[in-house]
Amino acid sequence: MALLEVRELVLHYASERGPVKAVDSVSFEVRGEGEALGIIGETGSGKSSLVRALMRIPPGNIDTYSGEVILKGKEIIHIPEEEFRREIRWKQIAVVFQGAMNGFNPVIRMGDQILERMVEERAIIPEKRREVAVELLKKVGLSEDTFFRYPHELSGGMKQRAAIAMALSLNPSLLILDEPTSALDVSIQAQIMNVLKQLKWDMGLSMLFITHDIALASDLCDRIVVMYSGQLREYGSAEQVLLDPQDPYTRELLSSIPRLHGKASPHFVTGAPPDPAEPPQGCRFHPRCPEKYEICTRKDPPLFATDDGHYARCWLKGKPPEKG
Ligand SMILES: Nc1ncnc2c1ncn2[C@@H]1O[C@H](COP(=O)(O)OP(=O)(O)OP(=O)(O)O)[C@@H](O)[C@H]1O
Ligand code: SF4
Ligand SMILES: [Mg+2]
Q1: pLDDT digits over 68-123, tens only?
Q2: For residue 296, which atom of ligand 2 is closest to its CA?
Q3: Upper half-sphere CA count for residue 82 (Cβ side, 13 Å)
Q4: Which CATH fold would you assign to the domain 4-92+172-317?
């Protein structure tokens, strides 16, 4: 049984211009202990909206919120909010939000902030506080004295480690990380990636690792989802998606990465991502696709299986309908 199964998840926001299709019928699974699933996509492709949908914290302007999310065999999107809060949020699924390291309260010591959820849940007795916090700090490579420090006394990398420690405080089965390294410089990014690898390999923690950086995803993830304009475009093992991409968008993304060897020079995907309130008719990537043909402007392709566990949303991979 998969740890997490996401089936046709939809989160559309209401706007004056009509529904913003931020997450548009997305399905995937996180298979089991220690699997890291990477979600990659350009800005605005719906990555953070997917997190909001999974954590059941959509904003006020919902147009449509539907689908199924099954955690360890139990559907969790349609259960009462109180049950989700009591049993799932932070306890089974925890998240390090995009920009979390800037969200600490400046006047509260780090130790108290890291333990905040444990205290709220009465999951810790006062005499154990220090011991438990130090254990959490150690897991993310922070020293004991971090417990007494204030946020302004820590570097960006240290604050991001602390945000990860805070998310781990109730011992979740799945950790979601939304762009956990994007505001950090490269050497600090590498340190955070090492922390995540340790959590995955030593503790068997499963992760949903969200990033626009394919190189980082390839460093950590077993399988990869490529998102574009709220839809899942390609899905498969990291080897399948990165070494044998079947979708033109994935190929364009990959060719934008500079290479040390070989003659090919990098090029960026031309054009801008579509407006999710008015996505193009047909294949949403067609205005930017170098391989488009007639049907692409008329019909949105479904996901086609191209190999065992490998799927791509492209008419080049399946038979278009005879009519229409
Ligand atoms: N509350 C909202 N109301 C209307 N539109 C929204 C709302 N929140 C996000 N959007 C729009 O939904 C789309 C997806 O946004 P989202 O933040 O999920 O993208 P993202 O992939 O996380 O981008 P980034 O890489 O920049 O973090 C964007 O077009 C965004 O402008
Ligand atoms: S369906 Fe057509 S436009 Fe879309 S990615 Fe495939 S070839 Fe390109
Ligand atoms: Mg985001």
Answers
A1: 999 999 999 999 999 999 999 999 999 999 888 899 999 999 999 999 888 888 77
A2: 2
A3: 0
A4: Rossmann fold (3.40.50)
